Amino acid sequence: MSANGSIHERTYRWPDGKRSAAAFSIDFDGETPYLWRTRHAPSSAIAELEQRAFGPRQGIYRILEMLAHLEIRASVFIPGWIADKYPEAVEAIAAGGHEIGLHGYLHENVQALSTEEIEETIVQGKEAIERIIGPRPMGYRSPSWELTPQTIELLKRHGILYDSSLMGFDHPYWIDGLPEVPVQWLLDDAIYFRFFGGYAGPPPTNPQMVTDLWRQEFEGIKRFGGLFLLTVHSWLSGRGSRILALEKMLSKMREDPEIWWATCAEIAAYHSQHYVGQFHVSTKEWQHD
Ligand SMILES: [Zn+2]
């Protein structure tokens, strides 16, 4: 392990003596994962596109309203294609004081792309967002939470502030010198709610059960001093009963005085300032040739 030797003995220390941190993020995918998946086989089918477009049309506004009420500033990761198609939604997100970050152009899986193509998704994604909200430093969350060492190098070269796609710790760390604000599947709404017509799997999970699970993870992370980083998708969590359950859970969490609520950018900035050279991982660990 190339990480810092004292890694297992340490508790991550948060600002103001807080016990742990919490952040709310939105992966604002809309139609893009479908368009990327079907890029070589265009079809006249519209059902999944409509299902996903619910997010940018309605779901996002419900989530933004809930966040305003709870006084939570979110980190919203937006594919460039979504910014081009729904500029008014991006404006509403920015107007709410939320952080905006990159999420590819068409939700491309970086693993399937050449280095040049990955670079294009970063540049195009950034340009699309900046056309609406102006130039600014941004963080990155990779589509489908897949990442490659080449992508990390490109992010650094383009001045990207941090990545938020990996799960190697449950507090911030460094990956090849780039701050990592870690996600985890347990705290992603998609694994519980993603359901399409003709799908043979189980029905979507009861929202109350999902928020119970999240609440348990919140308590566990708090005990160990980690980061509770929740990720929702507006086409999934923007639905009625899910918004209600989410609001109920978050309003309880907001009452906890031991939690530092912050955006991913603020967490990355804190890590960069206070943890230079600590909790560092090199991707060479995973390269075998
Ligand atoms: Zn996504």
TrEMBL record:
Residues 44-289 form the NodB homology domain. One of its GO terms (biological process) is carbohydrate metabolic process. PROSITE patterns: NODB. Pfam families: Polysacc_deac_1. Gene3D superfamilies: Glycoside hydrolase/deacetylase. GO terms for molecular function: hydrolase activity, acting on carbon-nitrogen (but not peptide) bonds. This is Polysaccharide deacetylase. The lineage of its organism: Bacteria, Bacillati, Bacillota, Bacilli, Bacillales.
